[in-house]
Amino acid sequence: MKKTHLFFALLVLVLLIPASGVFGQDEGAPVVWPDLGGREITIAVENEYCPYSLIRNGEAVGWDYDTFYAICELLNCTPVFEQVAWDGMLIAMSAGQYDVAADGITYTMERDETVDFGQLYQSYDEALLVRENESRFSTVEELIALGDFAVGTQLGTTNEQTAHNLFGIDNVRSLETFGAAVEALRNDDVDAVVVDRPAAQGLAAQGGLKVLPESLSGIQGLAFVYPPGSDLIAPINAAMSALEASGKWDEIFATWFPEDGSDVCSSS
After folding, report:
1. Distance, CA of 27 to CA of 11 (rounded, Å)
2. How far apart are CA 95 and CA 245, in angstroms?
């Protein structure tokens, strides 16, 4: 079976589990993973994409950090996080400059041609993030009807592709970081930002913003990215499943995606 066909079979499966889940083992079956002997694992993160990776109170934190600390505790490896700009992250991964990339990366067939993906760990959709007092529109159709509008997004992301498909290139302002797009929204420089819903909800919890309910492009899946042929895919997949089986995965998820919508992004 071709790699892309296999991955889409797994995508069908991930849509049947909660957003916080990963693929588990058969009930009662032992979970086996190798001892990596203290091996350093370099992990590319942007530190600009809450709640996955961010700088808060001067400290690098987020779901990516807690998850890889837990994974390496099982595998006996040492996580070494490297801050990498998004626009070069996947190119660097295809060249083998890092062992794995986190940062909430969406699986696509195009990306699958140059890098390898691990198992899907979260399903999500895309949404519009707008100012809290926005009353002119509540849907894509109503925003387009305004005629004179601008939508922000991050350069080189699947969000940018969705924005172009829905609003046309001329109405989209692509910025280097997601944070810059959100800042443009807060400053009234754009009318909305296209973003993955989990990240949008995290930003809305800070106050002043809200997430519109309309789904922009259907359900997609996130996965960790590896250089082609990486020997880490199988052990990290196994560790992810072990964390899910033990309940640790859900514990980490609840910390960074709280059900009450509390703010985990802002500095205290």
Report:
1. 22
2. 34
What are the C-alpha distances in Å from 238 to residues 45, 88, 222, 244, 267? 22, 28, 17, 10, 34
pLDDT tens string 161-217? 999 999 999 999 999 888 899 999 999 999 999 998 888 888 888 889 999 999 998
Instruction: For residue 47, give both structure tokens.
Output: 């530190």
pLDDT tens track for 58-97: 999 999 999 999 999 999 999 999 999 998 999 999 999 9
Amino acid identity, residue 41?
A: I
252-255 long-range Cβ contacts below 8 angstroms, 24+ apart: 252/63, 252/66, 252/67, 252/70, 253/19, 253/20, 253/63, 254/20, 255/63, 255/66
Q: What is the pTM of this model?
A: 0.75
- The partner residues of 154 in beta bridges, in order of sequence, read 175
